[in-house]
Task: inverse folding
């Protein structure tokens, strides 16, 4: 309901103001006197707001009895009502609906009373007609018994009887019509009574819900009052903390003044150091400029040496190609010598086989002498071949030595070139670092 929502809004606003106050007090160390004065004004404003919220809460509590007296609370919720609604769901619309239902029930009760009066009146009219009919029939019977009327009187009595019968038929028709209307009215009254009872039950249920909602609201009001008291205590504590923080702010202001004095002294010292550093920087710039010129000259010399090394490496590569051609020529010569040697060895083996065959066939001294001559010739030829083989091996060894020497020279040239390139890269890197240092010093 409206009062419960107002209390919740009040409590939430107090909580927000309390959180804001705590946040403001947490940053009290870093503020000056102006911020401290502004904070105290904020605390005073929060205190005024709290007093205003308490007054509004009291006004709401004063309005609550009048609202409660406007609705009857004697009714209790029935079993079919489904129990009380959740807290906070009953509002002014439900109270208005309950009031309208009560008015509707009163109106239907008035209509029922009117119908009852009409039925009683119809019953009285019916009883009076029945009495008149019975009294007319009795009078006519007694007159016939007592006297002997004439023909005219009998005719008059017959007309009167016919008129009475017609009147009675008309009255009976009216009575039947009235009975039908009475039954219809009774059915309508029964339906209206059932509707009135249903509305009465609904009203009682709404009253029960309203009563429970009022109890929940009273409990919430008590909790809100307790929370307001707690917030008041917290505000008092925050005021005390504010006084402590004010003292802390004064002490921090004194420390800030001392730090400002130290800062001024440090600024003066830094200005002097900056001037000294400016002089040193100018001297360093002159020195680094001289060093840079020397490094440039060294780079030019290194570049010339690198070009010379590249020329030497190119010449070594040309010589290596020539040695490779010479080696290929020698290898072809050695292959030819090997082929010749293999042919000679084959020929000697054939002659040796022939000599062995001749020695085996002929045992004469002449044959032995001829065989010895042939053997001597073969030995001489073999010695010559071994000398040629030794010469070829010497040539091959010399060729291999030349190849190794050329390979060593090539590797030495490559190492020298690699070292020259590494030195050149290192010198370029050193120059870049020096330029960066000079740039930083200039900045």
Result:
């Amino acid at each position: 309901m409206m009062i419960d929502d107002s209390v919740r809004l009040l409590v939430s606003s107090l909580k927000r103001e309390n959180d804001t106050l705590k946040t403001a007090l947490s940053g009290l160390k870093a503020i000056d006197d102006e911020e401290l004065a502004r904070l105290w004004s904020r605390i005073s404003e929060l205190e005024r707001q709290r007093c205003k919220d308490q007054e509004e809460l009291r006004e709401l509590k004063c309005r609550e009895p009048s609202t409660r007296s406007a609705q009857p609370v004697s009714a209790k919720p029935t079993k079919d009502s489904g129990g009380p609604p959740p807290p906070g769901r009953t509002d002014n619309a439900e109270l208005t609906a309950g009031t309208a239902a009560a008015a509707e029930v009163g109106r239907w009760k008035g209509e029922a009373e009117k119908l009852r009066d009409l039925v009683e009146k119809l019953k009285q009219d019916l009883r009076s007609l029945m009495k008149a009919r019975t009294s007319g029939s009795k009078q006519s019977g007694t007159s016939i018994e007592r006297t002997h009327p004439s023909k005219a009187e009998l005719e008059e009595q017959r007309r009167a009887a016919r008129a009475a019968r017609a009147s009675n038929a008309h009255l009976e028709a009216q009575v039947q019509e009235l009975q039908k209307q009475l039954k219809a009215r009774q059915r309508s009254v029964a339906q209206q009574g059932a509707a009135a009872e249903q509305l009465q039950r609904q009203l009682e249920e709404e009253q029960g819900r309203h009563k429970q909602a009022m109890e929940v609201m009273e409990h919430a009001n008590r909790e809100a009052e307790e929370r307001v008291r707690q917030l008041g205590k917290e505000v008092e504590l925050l005021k005390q903390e504010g006084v402590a923080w004010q003292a802390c702010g004064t002490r921090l202001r004194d420390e800030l003044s001392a730090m400002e004095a130290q800062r001024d002294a440090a600024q003066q010292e830094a200005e002097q150091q900056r001037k000294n550093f400016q002089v040193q920087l100018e001297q360093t710039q002159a020195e680094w400029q001289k060093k840079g010129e020397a490094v440039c000259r060294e780079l030019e010399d290194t570049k010339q040496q690198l070009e010379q090394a590249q020329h030497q490496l190119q010449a070594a590569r040309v010589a290596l190609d020539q040695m490779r051609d010479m080696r290929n020529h020698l290898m072809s010569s050695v292959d030819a010598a090997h082929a010749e040697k293999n042919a000679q060895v084959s020929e000697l083996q054939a002659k040796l086989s022939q000599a062995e065959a001749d020695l085996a066939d002929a045992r004469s001294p002449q044959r032995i002498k001829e065989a010895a001559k042939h053997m001597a010739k073969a030995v001489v030829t073999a010695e010559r071949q071994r000398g040629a083989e030794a010469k070829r091996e010497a040539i091959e060894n010399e060729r291999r030595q030349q190849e190794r020497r050329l390979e060593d020279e090539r590797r030495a040239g490559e190492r020298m070139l690699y070292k020259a390139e590494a030195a050149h890269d290192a010198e370029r890197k050193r120059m870049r670092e020096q330029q960066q240092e000079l740039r930083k010093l200039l900045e």
Remarks:
- Helices lie at 2-26, 33-69, 92-146, 151-361, 365-442.
- Residues 151-361 form the longest helix (211 residues).
